Amino acid sequence: MADIRIDYYPTHEEQGIKFRRGHALPFGATMVPNGVNFSIYSSAATSCSLVLFERGEPEPFAEITFPDEFRIGNVYCMIVFDLDFERLEYGYRMDGPFNPEQGHRFDKSIILSDPYGKAIGGRDTWLAKPNWDNIYPYRSRLAFEDFDWEDDRPLELPIEDLVVYEMHVRGFTMHPSSEVRNPGTFSAIRSKIPYLKELGINCIELMPIYEYDEWENSRENPVTGELLINFWGYSTVNFFSPKAGYAATGKFGMQVDELKTLIKELHQNGIEVWLDVVFNHTAEGDHRGHTISFRGIDNKTYYMLTPEGYYFNFSGTGNTLNCNHPVVRNMVLDCLRYWAADYHIDGFRFDLAAILGRAQDGRPLSNPPLLESLAHDPILAKCKLIAEAWDAGGLYQVGSFPAYGRWAEWNGKYRDNLRKYLKGDEGQVGDMAQRILGSPDLYYQRGPTASINFICCHDGFTLYDMFAYNTKHNEANGENNNDGANDNHSWNCGWEGETDDPAINHLRHKLIKNAFAILMVSQGVPMVLMGDEMGRTQKGNNNTYCHDSELNWLNWSLMEENSDLYSFARHTIRFRQAHPVLRNSKHFQHRDYVGSGLPDVSLHGVSAWFPDWSESSRAFAVMFCGDHAKQGSSKDDVIYVAMNMYWEGLAFELPHLPNEKKWYLSVNTDLPHPADSFEIGAEPLLDQQNTVWVGSRSVVILVGR
């Protein structure tokens, strides 16, 4: 007779439910033979019960208190048998002290979501209003391991070869002009994959897709009556669950499969997927917020608290996750491993990542254990890790983020220097040379791939608004224009907002092209904000976090309206991908180490070989020698980029090319479309091989071959 496994059978029965002691690991709800293993941690609860619901039912069908012998250390674990996996929703009640000064906020009247829940029910469609009278509004569900990935796996593309596109799932396809089925969903992105490929994008960075509450801090605009919500999603309810409201099939509980289908199809088309992850705070807010999960399970473990028991607020949103507590650290690791292993995610961008380096009392740590653990984790070994290297508590670590040889950073200094330079500020040329070369002043040890180069992101002006507005116009947010950053380094070209003046509109388009040209020839990893390639505007609003409207939706008709911008952006992205010398993984040495007759990189002014570093200088050039292209690639052309941000044109003396090579014109932002760029391999020979005229506030790119 075959051996019978004893742990397949119940030892207890209550309310018609059969159960036995479970396994402490893994945390969360895990399907096992004949049942489900439930495991949850709490260091201070005096008792815990498991609450079981039929999907959508207002009242539970059973509630089972964990017997004392089912607690192992501080972990409650139980296997429950004969459950209907498909119809099950579950939660927990925790009993314990309510003593905020000691850090404890237990409340047995509240049913709590599982921090490790793999899907959340109860909020299955976008803008489904939360009912806080419901005894359990955010319901933990099981996720099934039956998705057919076929042979898919994370792409593991070299980071230096990526062109990243920051995208909001709903904003990308919600506008009627997107002409997709199920707009605003994961499935709608699939129909735009041909567009991303045509543009040249091979990596999308998705703004938060975890389950979050769009109704958080919702209100009416006092002037317009417009409903303002939490549109961006930087306020997590559960870190393991994809947002049902972003799935066309969310109302059927199929959001997990819909997201996996999108990722699989993106991978089939050579496009990586990065997630913007928000481990700095949760949607529970401060002591006035709703208790959903963490606060009621173990407030003192999950949050950073003051000695008086209040919440530290380094995130600017009410609370701060206690990421360097070992239990929370393990949760973050388990979460990222889950997304990497079960969703095939290629990389993670960490919102306000400087918080992850703070001790439990808020001090910055010199050797943060969480950052080190993430860098050396075996499952995350091939994932890209990108830090937003600052937080709302004043910790700014661009260039000094603890990297352990693994972390890249959103390079905020690249953004600021390039914006100042593009609008013609003095004293920027020296810094700009560093930024174009991959910021060796910041990342000398790490190499240029530590620098995620961007000019615009979701937080701030769009690229179009950068040159249409001098100041922010956030009145639509209903906060008297007091929210959002004031240091935008923008310039309206002589008129605030939209204008019919052809000279101003020509100048704005030229400056946008300058931005794209410089971004795509810079060493490091370029990131483009959704819609910047077609001149998307937010009407001067630099903090559109609360708008589910055309302020945040990409208007696809702009592709025709601003066809010159789209065509130019596409050209510069393809130009970058065609020239490996623009995508090095190591810093240049400023010398000729292959005998090509030219150094690997050289800097120039209007006189060849003599850059002008003076305070008043606004013009310089950089030349990359393609014989020094990155290891493993074939030899490349010589690339010469001349940048002139003076209000008058300048003649640049060209360096002499060895081996009878000639200069050809690839880009001239001063010329009207379509003469502003030429197809790769079809660039016209430059009439004058000794000098090139660079118009006012213009960029010229030449190819030497």
Automatic annotation (TrEMBL):
Name of this protein: Glycogen debranching protein GlgX
Statement: the UniProt record of this protein carries the keyword Iron: no
Domain of life: Bacteria
Family: Belongs to the glycosyl hydrolase 13 family.
CDD domains: AmyAc_Glg_debranch, E_set_GDE_N
Domain spans labelled Glycosyl hydrolase family 13 catalytic: 166-576
Keywords: Glycosidase, Hydrolase, Transit peptide
